[in-house]
Predict the structure.
Amino acid sequence: MASKVIHAVYNDDDILMHAVKEVRAAHHHIEEVYTPFPVHGLDKAMGLADTRIAITSFMYGCLGLTVAIVMMNYIMIQDWPQDIGGKPSFSYLENMPAFVPIMFELTVFFAAHLMVITFYLRSRMWPFKKAENPDKRTTDDLFLMEVGVHGNEKELKDLLLNTGAIEVTVTEKDE
């Protein structure tokens, strides 16, 4: 199914931020904004919800800590207890201070790697995926705002031109 969208191209991030605020104030739906670098505050200006990736990172860290504790308890206490440096190997709690670096490293390892995998899956960015960028100039120095057209094409084009867009085009977007 194809739908009409307007692509407004801007050459400055401050002008883009002002334009996003004006378009949202006029109650138009911004489909997406393409930028060559992250623009601070753009997510708030677009009205996007906060991300939950920090929560998943915490859960992945807890999983890494659990794996570290279970692994060290099994390897160093139950399976093959060894007297290393005169430390007793009768219980996990007696040896825990020596295990803290391993617990920390596995917590960070699990949180970092699983968070990256989650981000790629959530963003639908997998290997060999075709790029969805509508204008290659947005990877260099221009900013593009994609706004859905719902029977208000002329009014929307005028609004976008008044916000400082250097180029406004109407295209069909495949969904």
Remarks:
- Helices lie at 13-25, 42-46, 53-79, 92-122, 153-162.
- The radius of gyration is 26 Å.
